[in-house]
Amino acid sequence: MAKNLLIVESPAKAKTIEKILGEDFQVKSCYGHIRDLEKEDMGIDIKHGFKPKYKISDDKEKVVKELRALAKKADDIWLATDEDREGEAISWHLCEVLGLNPEKTKRIVFHEITKPAIQQAVRNPRTVNMDLVNAQQARRVLDRIVGFELSPVLWRKMSMRNNLSAGRVQSVAVRLIAEREREITKFVTQSSFKVEAYFQAPDINKKLVTFKAEGPDKVKDSKTAREYLEKCIDASYTIKDIQVKPAKKSPAAPFTTSTLQQEASRKLGYSVSKTMVIAQKLYENGHITYMRTDSVSLSDTAIDMISKTVHDQYGDNYYQHRVYKNKNESAQEAHEAIRPTDMSISSVGDMDTKRLYDLIWKRTMASQMADAQIERTIAKIEVSLHPDSLTATGEVLRFDGFLKVYAEGRDEEDGEEENEGMLPPLTIGQKLDLQEMLATERFTRPLPRYTEASLVKKLEELGIGRPSTYAPTISTIQQRGYVERKDREGVRREFAVLSLKDKNVTTRSESENVGAERAKLFPTDLGLVVTDFLNLHFRSVMDYGFTAKIEEEFDEIAEGKQVWSKMIGSFYDPFHEQVEQTIETASRAAGERELGIDPVSGKPVIARLGRFGPMAQIGVNEGEEKARFAKLRPNQSIETITLEEALELFKLPRKIGIFEGEEITISIGRFGPYAQHAGKFYSLKKEMDPYTVEIDEVAPLIEEKRKAQAESTIKTFEKEKIKILRGPYGPYIKQGLRNYKIPKDKIETPEVLTIEEVNTIIEEAKANPPKRSPRGRKK
pTM of the full predicted structure? Predict the structure, then answer.
């Protein structure tokens, strides 16, 4: 039996560390958090200093029992959970349940799971840092208070089922997405014309090459653009000035949690949660340093490794020692950037893991490499018949430096980066031959919708959340139905192009695809209505500055500068009063919007949020008069739907023709669009639009579904409405909506089962329902 018991969060981490420490240590996993707040009364004693009431999670009872038994046999117990506040809190909870003294129990931390780092940590143990624990407790308690008090308000004040929730960070994140969506909806596109001229000149080999020069880019309309080109018909073009300027590009800092999430999204298309799952595996297997950090610094050991690798692989002139510093030191949750633990290893794992590791390796390497040296040439071209000159710009990369390894990605918000090519040799006074001058119509664009990564970037800029909270926040707002991550097809848009060529100005029309979106975050109608309600009644909770200030107070608690219970108290009293007042006085919220009058009935048409989602409504329930309802289509919103679009929804149910002597009716139910024929219902395929689908598409669908059903039906008991069906896992019994397994001794010959035998199987299954064991999960 090993003398030392060392406890970590995950089995993978335990396995890696046990190999390093050898026989003297038994390394066990607690599988994440072992306790959480009780559900009853929020799990918080409000009247006694917000004291948390913790309970061992049901799925951790077995884990805790095993750890208690091992702890009794061990001479020394070591806690080696992650080094951030969550990890510190887990260590404290382990002390509580295992009966250990947090002031004496050995606590070790490390930034990477390597032999030197683990051995160094074991040589220098400390005790549990209660300031970090209290900062985590403050966050957990405050978030529990906000969630438990706000959610019931939403249940009462919105026409939805009791599955709504609100949260301190998640609600603010939804607000950001909702506000961006409304900015886009209100945005009015304006057009202008951009002038570009194409010239020819001989290159160093005396071969004619074409290069571009730019003129005005904000010519207000087609008429002005034509006038500009017409003035240039008989003009001559002369180089009047040439400037050659050296420039440089510097590498980005090594990865923090948020910059890794952003870059993995831009370059690899990974979601925030996928990035963190892979990074966690890389860390636990000893390949990278701790992945939840907002530090950009590198250790001396890391810099030495990078220096050696750069010198060996690229040469002395490619290395440049750099020191990176955080803008916000107090926000650090770990003390080093995300980097490989061994720079000599450039590839690990399966394809997804390899791609993320490769990204981390290259970014780390580039961070200690020389600037890229660029020579930028700017030539001013005089137009003899026009006061405005043209500008030709070219770039030559004189030394690639860090670009040999890595170039940082860009977000849509940053605008498009011009890739400027080389210019041919030019001299002042040189006459140029115009090949063509274009005035192309261009349109203003609103700010783009957020991606998961750009939302993380915005939250970080506002000081909202911390490295450990970004991924869970973004997952939660999607799971709750407030936000959808989806693609959207673009639409064709025509634009005008005016051309001056061979002393003749012509106009042509071209088209482009605009508005296409990939993996963008869209607020749902539910998200918009909840955001408006919370903004109206809980402004402080929804305020960006207030939310960021709360994060700063958590940091102060972590530094021992503030008492956590007092901080919670100063928040709770006014907030609780606000909750009670809202329950008492606020009216119900449905995001109701009047669209106009139905020309047939003369009744008002409104769009609103109903119990099962966004819908259109004609009339109201008054006496015997009943309102009519129609569910909005997936791409429609109660904020933007028009009267005409809403009236179109009421064309369902629609009869599309006769098939086998029976009418086919198309409608939409709770579970989506369907066709009704001869008393039976058939779900439409995803690609079938219930408003336009015709009988020649639906009739084959009905035949296809019948055939599939007949092939899957082994036996039918019509009177009892029981069927024996063939499923993907073998035959089974179906009664109503319930399915029942057939015993193994009868599964080979289900077709011979009698109704008595079937009823016996059903009764036995009801009397002995299968026991469901709670699934273990890491929190």
Answer: 0.83
